[in-house]
Design brief:
One of its GO terms (molecular function) is hydrolase activity, hydrolyzing O-glycosyl compounds. With about 375 residues, this protein is of the alpha/beta class. The protein has two domains: about 190 residues, Rossmann fold (3-Layer(aba) Sandwich), CATH 3.40.50.2000; about 160 residues, Glycogen Phosphorylase B (Rossmann fold), CATH 3.40.50.2000. A six-stranded parallel β-sheet has the order 3-2-1-4-5-6, with helices on both faces. It starts with a strand and ends in a 6-residue tail after the last helix.
C-alpha cells in the first residue's frame, strides 16, 4: 500500500513521529513524505532538515510560503500552495494520503487534491478553535477526507455533523501522546545543559488569534507585559510562533523581551518533539495559547494557563486554567499555580495504541463502503 504523508510544520511532523516509525517498519506500506509549509522556511528554522535526518526513503519538498504574514500574504501563499499541489497530485498517486490538523497550508494542499479524488485520511478532525481561522481550514479538510481519526467521541460526532456521514470514522485518541512512555525523552541534566536552562522555568508558546487580526497588537503587548512581570521571579523558556497571520507582531515583542531580560528569557525557534516533551516534563507549568497545552500537557502532569480565544471551544482536561489577554490576570493565574505542584487527573485525549489503530484502519478500510 502506497501512503503519502503531508507535513507542513514542525508541529505536525512531531505528532506523526510514532505513526511514521510504525509505517516504516511494516513491509505492507510504501511510505513517501511530502514536506512543505514552514518546513522549507529558513525564517522558521528550516525544519525539513529534521525529516532528512530521519532518513525516510522518499521525501518531496514543495516550497510555497511568503516572507510576510499579513492577510494578503497568507491568502497568496494559500493560492500558491494549491497551485503547486495541483501539479503534484497530477503526477503522484497514493492509496492513502495522511493529513493532520488545521494549518492553512495543509488545507490548500488538500483542496487541490479534491478534483483528483485523492484518498485523504484526516487526523485531529472535528475539533473546535473559535479564536483561530484554522477552525475553518480544519473543517475544510474534514469535508475532503474519506477516512477520519478524531481524538475523542465528541469530535467524531462533530465530524458526522459536518459530513453527514457516519462511515470511515475511527476514534483513536491523540497521536502526539501515543506510546509516550516509550519515547526516548532526554533526561533532565542533558536537556538543561543543551539549552543552558537553570532553575525553575515556565514553558511558553504564544500565537496570534487569526480570527481577529486587529486585536493582535494589543494581545502581543499584554503578553509582553505579563512575561515581563513573570521574568522577575521565574525563567521563561519560549518557543517562537508559527507562520500565522501577524505572527511577526508576537515575535517582535518576544525579541524585545529577550533584549531587556536576557538572563531570564530563552527563545527557542524549534525544539523538535523529544526536546519539547522534555521541556514540558521539566517545566513548572505551561503558559500561552497553543494546542499542546490543551492536548499533551496533562499527560506530563502539568497545569496550563490558556490565554485568550485561540483554543476556545476545544475540549479541555482538568489541568487548564483559562484567562483573557490581560497581563494582571495572567500574572495572578501564574502565581496561583505555583503551589499546586503536579496535575494528577486524566488526559481526555489519551487512548492506548493510537498509531496501531490508525494502521489497522488503513489496511482494512474498504473505500467502496462510503
Amino acid at each position: 500500500m502506497k501512503v503519502g504523508v503531508l507535513t507542513s510544520s514542525r508541529a505536525d511532523f512531531g505528532i506523526y513521529s510514532s505513526l511514521l516509525k510504525r509505517i516504516q517498519e511494516d513491509s505492507f506500506f510504501d511510505l513517501e513524505i511530502i514536506a512543505f509549509g514552514t518546513h522549507l522556511s529558513k525564517f522558521h528554522g528550516y525544519t525539513v532538515e529534521q525529516i532528512v535526518e530521519a532518513r525516510f526513503p522518499k521525501i518531496y519538498k514543495i516550497a510555497s510560503l511568503l516572507t510576510n504574514d499579513d492577510e494578503h500574504s497568507i491568502s497568496t501563499a494559500y493560492g500558491l500552495t494549491a497551485l503547486k499541489f495541483s501539479d503534484f497530485w497530477a503526477d503522484h498517486m497514493y492509496d492513502w494520503v495522511l493529513c493532520l490538523g488545521d494549518r492553512f497550508e495543509m488545507a490548500a494542499a488538500v483542496q487541490a487534491g479534491i478534483p483528483y479524488d485523492v484518498n485523504f485520511a484526516h487526523l485531529h478532525g472535528g475539533e473546535t478553535t473559535l479564536g483561530a481561522i484554522d477552525n475553518i481550514y480544519r473543517h475544510q479538510i474534514t469535508l475532503a477526507a474519506k477516512l477520519h481519526f478524531p481524538a475523542t467521541q465528541l469530535f467524531a460526532e462533530r465530524i458526522i455533523d459536518i459530513t453527514g456521514n457516519k462511515k470511515g470514522i475511527n476514534v483513536v485518541g491523540s497521536l502526539s501522546i501515543d506510546e509516550i512512555g516509550n519515547l526516548n525523552i532526554p533526561d533532565e541534566d542533558e536537556f538543561r545543559n543543551r539549552y543552558n536552562i537553570q532553575g525553575d522555568f515556565i514553558l511558553i508558546t504564544f500565537h496570534p488569534e487569526t480570527v481577529s487580526p486587529e486585536r493582535n497588537r494589543a494581545n502581543a503587548k499584554e503578553m509582553y507585559k505579563a512575561l515581563k512581570m513573570l521574568s522577575k521571579n521565574m525563567k521563561l523558556v519560549i518557543t517562537m510562533p508559527n507562520a500565522d497571520t501577524y505572527g511577526t507582531i508576537f515575535r517582535a515583542n518576544l525579541l524585545q523581551l529577550k533584549n531587556e531580560e536576557a538572563d531570564q528569557v530563552i527563545l527557542i525557534e524549534t525544539f523538535g518533539k523529544l526536546n519539547y516533551f522534555a521541556a514540558m516534563r521539566y517545566c513548572t507549568f505551561l503558559l500561552g495559547n497553543t494546542s499542546s497545552g490543551i492536548i499533551e500537557a496533562a499527560s506530563f502532569g502539568k497545569y496550563v494557563i490558556n490565554v485568550g480565544d485561540r483554543q476556545k471551544g476545544r475540549a479541555q482536561s482538568g489541568n487548564v486554567v483559562n484567562t483573557s489577554f490581560d497581563a494582571k490576570e495572567i500574572n495572578h493565574a501564574a502565581l496561583s499555580l505555583l503551589p499546586k505542584g503536579r496535575f494528577a487527573g486524566v488526559n481526555i485525549y489519551y487512548r492506548p495504541g493510537t498509531a496501531r489503530a490508525i494502521l489497522e484502519s488503513l489496511k482494512n478500510f474498504n473505500n467502496e463502503e462510503l
